[in-house]
């Protein structure tokens, strides 16, 4: 029927996804084959070996017993040929004589889980770094908040540029997402400038508390622009937040003209309050834009737009205002460098925390920022908080914690 010099070995690769791949291997036996050789090239020869590929990339090789017996009977020449067949599957990937139960167990073996509290630890580190930045901004004298923002954006550009080249994301991003990237950069940089200005104009803890109210406004803006669900709890948390801001601002028409615990005059205090409140809303808009973009845009590309647009905006604004100054004290120059480095580290740890942990626990961990602000204000600036400031901070922290817990609970039920 056919020439026995070329006998076909059939090797079937079976994958758990019901995909079977068949390879045909041709063995040359020499020209002096006879009828017995033809019998050897029959059904037993075609069932020489079978290789099963599991989904977890472990290769299980099963060689037919008949083929091994024939390899021993053939002599040295056929033994070499049998050894060649066995080396077709690398030994490092072969698991022989394993029962089916053990193979299935290894296929279903899960990866070991990491440390459960690592994400919260990263969130705590980012909170500490951001709190230290606020202290440093408050410490530097004679440098405008916009100039501090420009220096931070400049070093952030230097840090992000190699990462964009490494990840091959480009510097412009997807064409349909560029308008959102520009908005993210413009609004986010303005939020940073307003926060720095508020810290310079009013007590550190008060500015931090007002700025920390942005999660409540994020829920409202997401309801308006993204059509996300808004519940009665969101309205309650908003009322609590506005109450807290009023307790911190203490407008004269509600609290009278004689106010205690205000840094400088009341004009600077109200300027700082307005800047912090506007910064909180700007930060909320930034989060809404990031939600709109989703995960289709790489994080480093978003930070790149934030740094570039912020740097250009700060340079133009400082030049127009004529506020560009080089710090006279060498210590302030090092502090400006430290602000930039800590800003990069804080953003990196916060991003890593959100990648590992859910957003709810991370937002709850960020409430530590308020506690650290009061502690640092007392230690470094010898200013004890007033009861009004503590009451306002309690209202804001309760509101933001309520938003975080509610979203955490909703996401847990969905999952």
TrEMBL record:
It is a multi-pass membrane protein. The chain crosses the membrane at residues 118-137, 149-167, 179-198, 204-225, 232-249, 269-290, 302-322, 334-351, 363-381, 387-405. Residues 118-249, 271-402 form the EamA domain. InterPro entries: EamA_dom (IPR000620), EmrE-like (IPR037185). Keywords: Cell membrane, Endoplasmic reticulum, Membrane, Repeat, Transmembrane, Transmembrane helix. The keyword Glycoprotein does not apply. The keyword Cell cycle does not apply. It comes from Seriola lalandi dorsalis. GO terms for biological process: calcium ion export across plasma membrane; regulation of cytosolic calcium ion concentration. Pfam families: EamA (PF00892). May play a role in intracellular calcium sensing and homeostasis. May act as a negative regulator of plasma membrane calcium-transporting ATPases preventing calcium efflux from the cell. It is found in: Cell membrane; Endoplasmic reticulum membrane. GO terms for cellular component: endoplasmic reticulum membrane; plasma membrane. This is Solute carrier family 35 member G1. Belongs to the TMEM20 family. Interacts with STIM1; stimulated by depletion of intracellular calcium. Interacts with ORAI1. Interacts with the plasma membrane calcium-transporting ATPases ATP2B1 and ATP2B4. Interacts with ATP1A1, ATP2A2, KPNB1 and XPO1.
């Amino acid at each position: 029927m056919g020439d026995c010099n070329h006998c076909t070995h059939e090797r079937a690769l079976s994958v758990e996804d019901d995909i079977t791949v068949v390879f045909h291997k041709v063995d040359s036996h020499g020209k002096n084959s006879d009828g017995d050789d033809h019998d050897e090239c029959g059904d037993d020869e075609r069932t020489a070996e079978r290789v099963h590929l599991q989904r977890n990339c472990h290769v299980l090789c099963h060689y037919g017993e008949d083929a091994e017996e024939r390899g021993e009977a053939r002599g040295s020449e056929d033994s070499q040929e049998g050894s060649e067949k066995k080396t077709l599957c690398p030994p490092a990937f072969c698991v022989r004589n394993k029962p089916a139960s053990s193979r299935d167990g290894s296929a279903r073996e899960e990866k070991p889980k990491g440390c459960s509290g690592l994400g919260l630890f990263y969130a705590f580190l980012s909170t500490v770094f951001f709190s230290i930045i606020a202290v440093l901004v408050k410490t530097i004298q004679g440098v405008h908040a916009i100039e501090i923002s420009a220096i931070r954006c400049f070093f952030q550009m230097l840090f992000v540029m190699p990462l964009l080249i490494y990840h091959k994301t480009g510097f412009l991003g997807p064409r349909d997402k560029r308008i959102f990237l520009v908005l993210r950069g413009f609004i986010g940089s303005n939020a940073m400038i307003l926060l720095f200005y508020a810290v310079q104009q009013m007590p550190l803890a008060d500015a931090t508390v007002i700025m920390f109210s942005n999660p409540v406004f994020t829920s409202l803006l997401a309801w308006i622009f993204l059509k996300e669900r808004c519940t009665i709890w969101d309205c309650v948390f908003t009322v609590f937040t506005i109450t807290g801001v009023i307790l911190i601002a203490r407008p004269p028409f509600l609290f009278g003209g004689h106010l205690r615990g205000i840094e400088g005059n009341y004009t600077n205090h109200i300027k700082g309050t307005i800047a912090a409140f506007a910064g909180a809303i700007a930060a909320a808009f930034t989060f809404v834009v990031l939600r709109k973009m989703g995960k289709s845009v790489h994080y480093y590309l978003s930070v790149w737009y934030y740094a570039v647009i912020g740097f250009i905006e700060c340079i133009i604004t400082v030049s127009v205002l004529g506020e560009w100054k080089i710090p006279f004290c060498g210590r302030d120059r090092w502090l400006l460098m430290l602000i930039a480095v800590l800003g990069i580290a804080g953003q990196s740890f916060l991003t890593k925390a959100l990648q590992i942990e859910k957003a709810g626990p991370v937002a709850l961990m960020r409430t530590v920022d308020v506690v650290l602000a009061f502690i640092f204000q007392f230690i470094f600036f010898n200013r004890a908080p007033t009861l009004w400031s503590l009451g306002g901070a309690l209202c804001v922290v309760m509101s933001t914690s309520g938003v975080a817990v509610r979203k955490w609970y909703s996401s847990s039920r969905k999952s």
